[in-house]
Amino acid sequence: MTSASYLLQGPRVAVRHVCLQDYAELTALAQESAEMLRRWLGARENTAEAFESYLERFEQPTHEGFVICLRSTGEIVGGVNINNIVRGALQSGTLGYTAYASTTGYGYMTEGLGLVIQLAFDQLELHRLEANIQPDNTSSLNLVKRLGFQREGYSAAFQFINGEWRDHERWAVTAEKARGD
To answer: Is pTM, for the whole model, over 0.85?
Structure first.
């Protein structure tokens, strides 16, 4: 992808919309990272049809899908969705994100998710973003803490993953907090 397709760029990574051409690369990343992610996300179907269905969500005004890429190579190092976007008096959305085994630990997700948060508050004109995280997912909890999210609560039996309902902590950040207002 050319840098012209990037929505925002940081020092090392850039963010763009996910697209059909990403299928092979994202499938390979998901397969190499399956063991790392299974506990948090459960088993996922990696067929072309499932990917097309995933992309169709982003045709709706309630969902946005992005990939985080290395600026130097264009290689995908993470994925971010803003789901359940509500307009009107709320102007909010829920974050979902994925790191991959081969690129974990380099700070790419911190930089890339920071860019998506900036995009959400500026270009998408949202006011609030929420992330729901399993209490023992310390990497994800540390990520949102680094980005200024505050813990707001605990949701028992929040999401069905790997055959059981999992508890989640609810974290959020507002546009003012993210901008340091």
So the answer is: yes
